[in-house]
Design goal:
CATH topology of the largest domain: Rossmann fold
Order of helices and strands: HEEEHEEEEEHEHEHEHEEHHHH
Helix content: 25-40%
Number of strands: 13
Strand order of the largest sheet: 10-9-8-11-13-12
Strand content: 15-25%
CATH architecture of the largest domain: 3-Layer(aba) Sandwich
Radius of gyration: 23 Å
CATH superfamily of the largest domain: P-loop containing nucleotide triphosphate hydrolases
Length: about 350
């Protein structure tokens, strides 16, 4: 195996500094566990840590390595341990707002080619949640594909109806319905997985991501758990993000189920996901139209005549408000952190001069 088999393409080659190869080796982050990493190249999987210099030079969580990153590493102890010195520029970065009240980014994975957004055809099926995933992937310039699991629960005509609903919000998106109970089901997903490309499984707990992954690997490697019958919700089986190299040469990143999908800084993602609303906004009487109460609003007119659905419109407005609010909080926090950092440097400089 070489680094090309792990997804290192010409795009990354053009972004690397060849002078660094004299001291460091290229490797890919395949797992993250708090402050420790697992990296891989032509050698075995090796545990790694980041250098103190890298740790203290970061401005935010976005500057830390994450699963899927290409990094420059220095190997020690007969290649049994490594230290990460730098991150190769990313082709894509999948992120979300951290859960809870804290306003910060949580890294999900980097350098993904295709996101497999998974919903099950039971209580979990939800177009509004799907729109949130699409905003996240479109913002990151990642190609989305929708997987509908548990197709054995519905008759064929009902499945076609669900697929039509998805195409109504994103006409050209690929949708694949399958069942983990049917031996031929995962084969339709396998056909999507191209060698040397990186895929990411996204979806709530209980939709069957881990079962699908076991089927793709043709063996039970990861533990699965049942879902509650009353609401279809599952427990978190996957507890960390991990990049897995499949036998056909494709790579897939399994992610823990996400109950919160807060987003901010997602103007591009909103524009791509709700492109018909964005197109209408160009016809509004005011350039800064909020599409809530202004006269001459083309979006509200389309809402009234039924061109766009009320549920889709409400989700668009809600996500716009969320993004604006969280982004303002994030920028205020960054400003305070920067001021605090300057103050610390001034104090340290003053102490040094007094010696």
């Amino acid at each position: 195996m070489n680094i090309q088999d792990l997804g290192f393409s010409k795009w990354f080659q053009d972004k690397t500094d060849p002078e660094k190869s004299a001291d460091y080796q290229l490797a890919r982050v395949i797992a993250v566990n708090k402050d420790s990493y697992l990296i891989k190249n032509e050698k075995n999987d090796v545990p790694a840590e980041i250098t103190g210099k890298l740790m203290f030079s970061v401005d935010s969580s976005l500057d830390y390595p994450t699963v899927g990153d290409w990094i420059w590493a220095q190997y020690f102890d007969e290649d049994t341990f490594a230290v990460i010195h730098d991150i190769v520029p990313r082709k894509s970065l999948l992120k979300r707002k951290t859960s809870g009240k804290k306003t910060a980014f949580q890294l999900i994975a980097a350098n993904i080619d295709t996101a497999l957004i998974m919903q099950s055809l039971d209580f979990n099926y939800n177009l509004r949640r799907l729109e949130r995933y699409l905003v996240m992937t479109n913002q990151s310039n990642i190609h989305p594909v929708v997987l509908l699991s548990k197709k054995d629960l519905l008759p064929p005509d009902e499945i076609e109806k669900k697929i039509a609903e998805i195409h109504a919000i994103m006409p050209n998106i690929q949708v694949v319905a399958f069942s983990n109970k049917d031996n031929s089901g995962p084969d339709s997903v396998k056909e999507l997985l191209t060698p040397r490309k990186t895929f990411c499984l996204l979806g709530s707990s209980g939709v069957g991501k881990t079962t699908l992954l076991n089927n793709l690997m043709d063996k039970s490697v990861f533990e699965t758990q049942s879902v509650r019958e009353k609401d279809g919700k599952g427990k978190h089986t996957t507890t960390r993000r991990e990049l897995i190299h499949l036998e056909n040469g494709a790579m897939i990143i399994d992610t823990p189920g996400m109950r919160e999908l807060g987003n901010f800084g997602v103007e591009t993602g909103l524009s791509h996901t709700f492109n018909e609303i964005e197109a209408l906004s160009a016809q509004c009487a005011y350039n800064d139209c909020s599409h809530i109460q202004e006269e001459g609003c083309a979006v509200l007119a389309a809402l009234e005549n039924g061109t766009i659905s009320r549920e889709r419109y409400q989700n668009y407005i809600k996500m716009n408000k969320e993004s604006a609010y969280y982004e303002m909080s994030y920028l205020e926090k960054k400003k305070k952190d920067k001021q605090f950092g300057k103050m610390c440097k001034t104090v340290m400089k003053h102490k040094k001069n007094k010696r």
